[in-house]
Amino acid sequence: MNRTVRLIIASTFFALAAGPIHAAGPEAIEAVPMPDVAIYHLEGRRSERIVWLMEELGAPYELIFERGDLAGSMAKIRAVNPDVPMAPTVIIDGQVLVESGAIIEVILNRYAPDRLQPALHTTDYANHLMWMHFAEGSLAARLFSDYRAWLREPPTERSRLVDSEATVQYAENFLAKNAWFGGTNFTSADIMMVFPLNVATALNIVDVAQFPHVAAWKKKIEGRGAYQRMLAVARPDG
Known about the structure:
By secondary structure, the chain is α+β, with helices and mostly antiparallel strands. The protein has two domains: 85 residues, Glutaredoxin (3-Layer(aba) Sandwich); 102 residues, Glutathione S-transferase Yfyf (Class Pi), Chain A, domain 2 (Up-down Bundle). It is 55% helix and 6% strand. The chain has nine helices and four strands; from the N terminus they run αβαβαββαααααα. Strands 2-1-3-4 form a four-stranded mixed beta sheet. Strand 1, helix 2 and strand 2 form a beta-alpha-beta unit.
């Protein structure tokens, strides 16, 4: 195949691809009615994200757990998801799903494409999506790695090889210039980021005093009505 033919094929491919890539996006997709959503939950765990999301959307859901009984709640999860029993396990219209970030994206993109996400063409959208994945892919992974290491051998001083502070500092620097992890407005990226940032300070992996913008952001989160409603049903005993 000569170079001219290859260029024509490549140009044709990108011309065909460009249309849907530029036309589609969360704000361009027509929402479909919300089906039955069942959230299998463990108190104080990542499944709170899905409860909070549904409260933000004002959408109905069934919350399934044993109050004050983690073993009992896990038994309910194993009954519907024996292969990888984890919280959240969510059943949407009969389909069993795990991974809170993926569940959030499925719910928003299918049933509320104009909610809790910036417009696709904006800078905010790219930042929002980055923080959606950073929450678990970088932040939570490194926090729990450090925490497990310190449980085995508590450090006498911070190691220069430990990067928990660096990942939280990255969030701190962003919040110094932006109101939310979604940029201008609250988005599902903020829902994703609460859990690991709470873990970072609650388990004393990082010093909360070093991150005033994270602390101010948390206060805004705690003042949201949907967040308070989530706590009332998902963590009723505090």
